[in-house]
Amino acid sequence: MASNSRGLRMGSQVALEFSKLRHRHLVAVCIAMVAFVLLWFGSQGAKQVVRSDDYRTVLYSLPQINAVILPLLSTVVASTVCDIENRTNKWKELLTIERADSLFCAKWLTCAILLAATVTGEVAATTALGVMLGFDPVPLGEAAVLWASTLGVCLFVSTVVEAICFFANNQFLPVATGIVLSFLGLFSLYLPPAVSMFVPSAYFGLLSTVSMTYDAASGSIIWGSVPWPLWRFLLVAVITAAAFLLSLRVSSRKEL
């Protein structure tokens, strides 16, 4: 009974967080990001399908653009959700009626829902666009792996950024974090795996199940499949959980 009551209360808190976002256009930003990815993939895919209609082109292309776009979007989502109280200096007033750890959880769930919806829309729309362009359909299992990998990295970034937002007095540091991660994501795909493993935004590519080899002699691309690096996904999940629990513990002691 008590657990049901806590669940209902948390649901109410999450609903309240969404109501605060009504005039912040965050959903529109997420939709615009998906639209940008579709435009980019539509432009690139129309050229690539002439060479090969292998569905792995889709699975290879998305992590490349995601490594640049999604760290910044995850930062924008987390910082916007937390910026409401920072902007109006409402933390002290709010913490007199709400526990800090409950507030942290509600904001984390709000970010998770927004990012899950965005990633779902991106993966579904891009795979559908791939079929329209002439690529083979992406198998459901591989699309699910792409979805889980993408969302996992997004949650990792947003968890760290939310923790920064919760304890920083301004939004400069969180936004700067997102910009740096996006910049690193641009180059991380060209770094050796042993180096890129230390770059959070590189995991969009490190969790890929596709290999690509360019045959200079024939000018063709040879696609291949590799096993999903589950241990890397679990590493991301463990680090995310550790960051969440540490932030939750510290936030529960947040002073008024």
TrEMBL record:
Transmembrane segments: 26-43, 63-84, 105-132, 144-165, 172-191, 230-248
Record key words, sorted: Membrane, Transmembrane, Transmembrane helix
Pfam families the record matches: ABC2_membrane_4
Source superkingdom: Bacteria
Designated name of the protein: ABC transporter permease
